[in-house]
Amino acid sequence: MVFITILAIVPILFISIGSLLSAPKYKGPVSDHFNGKVFNNIDGVKAKGFKDVFSMLTQRPKRGPWTEITSVAPRPNPPASIKEGIRVTFVNHSTFLIQVAGLNILTDPVWSKRVSPFQFAGPKRMRPPGLKMEQLPKIDLILLSHNHYDHLDLSTVQKLVKEHQPQIVTPLGVGQFIKRRANGKATDLDWWESFAFSEQIKISAVPAQHFSGRGILDRDATLWCGYIIDTPDQKIYFAGDSGYGSFFKTIGERHPGIDLALLPIGAYLPIWFMSPIHTTPEEAAKIHLEIKARQSVATHFGTFPLAFEGMEQAQNELRAALQKFDIPAEQFWVLEQGESRSVEA
Predict the structure, then answer these.
(1) Within 10 Å of residue 25's Cβ, how many Cβ atoms?
(2) Domain map of the chain by residue range?
């Protein structure tokens, strides 16, 4: 009798917790990628569902090796700002400090130990952030690509809002979550929409191929995107989190002259399961060519074990892909934690 009672309680708890974790849903006009309830990818590509998750787990794929790194060599504090060129610092995963035109910008900031609703379970950080949060200069702008836990880390955003009061740019529907839970100043953008941060700085949302959701009731109820940062002298592309699609070439055509592109290379195995939502290293190399980026840098690898490739596998496969496509290695950086490099104007 006790066992039967437990079996009855478990799904109720699961549904209740999943409902509480769900983010507010976007409400707005129907478009070519929003049907009034959920958002859709270009060409109708969909992330795999629960049936496919079960199928993958029954195949028992073997994860490549990961080794936890508990400390990294300290890095010097970044400059307060820079006026010319671009300075990019790799913090971890998809978190970068971009310094350009006197502005300090963070992409998808994550400083938590786990990317999960709970800090006692879920994907664990396997190397420390390359910069401590207290090392950051004054942050002017945060770009959030979507609301998954490894890209929208609520506790990190709350601390940044309290300390820096930045402008936050979000895909459709995510802004209300930031306003409610972090008391942040957020501006929502649809694909191809732009936000004038100042007279000289423009942020444009561009398509990505992914999905969204923080609980069980908000699947695809908010948008996902990448961003173009336009300054008077430089253009930067942050791809966010995405599978491979024809829209990358369109982004390059509609936003020519990209000086720096931040492109994801990890969390791609098994390919049959991950390909709708994550690019392989070889696809990242193809994107570099299709958008005609002057310089690219790898993101979304080597920090959290989110798929089944090993800790160093994505980096190694990217190097092989660069050779395959005759792309000089210096045109596609793989940075160490906390490493900074500059792109001259």
Answers:
(1) 15
(2) 83-343
Tokens of 24: 């507010």
- Three-class secondary structure of residue 246 per DSSP: coil
- Which tokens is 256 given? 């020519």
Residue reference for tokens 């910008």: 105
Give the burial string for 259-288 (b: 16+ CB within 10 Å, else e).
bbbbbbbbbbbeeebbbbbbbbbbbbbbbb
Assess contact for 61 and 313: CB atoms under 8 A: no
39 forms beta bridges with 34
- Please state which CATH number belongs to domain 83-343: 3.60.15.10
| pLDDT tens track, the chain, 345 positions | 544 544 444 343 344 454 567 899 999 999 999 999 999 999 899 999 888 888 887 887 789 999 999 988 899 999 999 999 999 999 999 999 999 999 999 999 999 999 999 988 899 999 999 999 999 999 999 999 999 999 999 999 999 999 999 999 999 999 999 999 999 999 999 999 999 999 999 999 999 999 999 999 999 999 999 999 999 999 999 999 999 999 999 999 999 999 999 999 999 999 999 999 999 999 999 999 999 999 999 999 999 999 999 999 999 999 999 999 999 999 999 999 999 999 998
β pairing state of 167-171 and 185-189: parallel
Determine the Cα–Cα distance for residues 15 and 38; give it in Å rounded to an integer. Answer: 20
The DSSP string of 188-210 is: EE-TT-EEESSSS-EEEEE----
Task: Please answer whether residues 91 and 130 qualify as being in contact, where contact means their C-beta atoms are separated by less than 8 angstroms.
Answer: yes
Token pair of 47, please? 């992330």
Query: Is 0.85 surpassed by the pTM of this model?
Result: yes
What b/e sequence results for 67-105 when a residue is b if at least 16 CB atoms lie within 10 Å of its CB, and e otherwise?
A: eeeeeeeebeebeeebeebbbbbbbbbbbbbbbbbebbb
Among 266, 290, 261, 301, CA closest to 280: 266
Sequence letter at residue 219: R
Q: If we measure between CA atoms, which residue out of 282, 335, 327 comes closest to residue 309?
A: 282
Name the residue with tokens 């310094």.
99
Phi, psi of 210 (to 5 degrees): -160, -150
